[in-house]
Amino acid sequence: MTQxxxxxxxxxxxxxxxxxxxxxxxxxxxxxLKSGLEFTGPEVRDLQRxxxxxxxxxxxxxxEKLWQESAGAAGxxxxxxxxxxxxxxxxxxxxxxxxxxxxxxxxxxxxxxxQCRERRQQAEPFKYESAELLxxxxxxxxxxxxxxxxxxxxxxxxxxxxxxxxxxxxRMGQMNLSCAQCHQDNWGKKLGPETISQxxxxxxxxxxxxxxxxxxxHRRFRSCQSGVRAELSPQGAPEFLDLELYLAWxxxxxxxxxxxxxx
Amino acid sequence: MxxxxxxxxxxxxxxxxxxxxxxxxxxxxxxRLDDSGRAAPxxxxxxxxxxxxxVEVFRAEMGSGVAANPFLSFFTVAxxxxxxxxxxxxxxxxxxxxxxxxxxxx
Lengths: 263, 106
What we know:
The structure holds 2 protein chains of 2 kinds. Chain A has helices at residues 3-26, 42-49, 56-68, 78-82, 85-88, 109-119, 131-142, 155-169, 179-183, 217-227, 238-250, and strands spanning 98-100, 105-107, 190-191, 194-195, 206-208, 213-215, 260-262. Chain A has a 3-stranded mixed β-sheet with strand order 6-5-7. In chain A, strands 1-2 form a two-stranded antiparallel ribbon. Chain A is mainly alpha-helical. Chain A is built from 11 helices and 7 strands. In chain A, helix 3 crosses helix 7 and helix 6 (109-119) crosses helix 7 (131-142). Chain B starts with a strand and ends with a strand. The A-B interface holds A 52-53, 55, 57-59, 61-62, 65, 131, 212-213 and B 2-4, 6, 20, 22-24, 26-27, 67-69, 71.
């Protein structure tokens, strides 16, 4: 082998390594990003797009009423501080989860509503999966509809993002599967009769036809944990918030769809 | 019980209009077991009536075959401006009521 071909060979190897490294970075996000809506049938798509037929709108209506209702010892409503949600809550869900100094950790929309309830309204917090909390979360989420998911990762959140990514790629349960094995490596393929989605969180809370009701993102996480026969984490658990942050980063740019409808 | 009603913003006299209603209700069939294995008692919205300016224009009887959060739609003739009042009741005796105003021109 001459020196020239050796150099050429080394160059090729180096280029290949750069390509692999570049690919690994891109691989963290599915290309192209596709909403879960694209993996459902036309009936589900029509149901979500019709603002009256969409059953999730019942929860939004509930949330809209709760927004105006005074609650707790402080006798304040959400509107008393935040005014019209259509302007004050516009884009909020698209920026969550965030870092909360008070709890020195991540907080999602549900957590922020609960925090407001306890601190500002001095009322009992809602149960995590209650119709009230789902309603307010959906109502707040709807105000960001159409806006791109755009979570900001600051220095304090970097560690949480890493933890979320680790969880996303960690095998779990009797099935020994990670989130990534379905939603990163095999989206678009079939799992039984279902087409595997990319697993984005932009439509949550969603009305899931299988549940016959509205459900939170953490309920969906628990369904997946149950599906791979892993131990279930409770709704609102720190590891779920890490995962929620990782998903928010991963789906960056996709428009918010709340309230979504899924099978 | 939360409900949503959709009527046209306005209608011409004699026009056939679509009225839609969605009610938030679990529509428990009576065939399911709860988390501890006990049968969940049947609880569905079994009767719904719509009155248009006091006159009954639509009535529905529902059973365990209707999905949760029932969504009904029907047609009626716009005759005069006024109010559509919906009343319904479920197996546990819980009642719900919701109304919508209709403007008829001409």
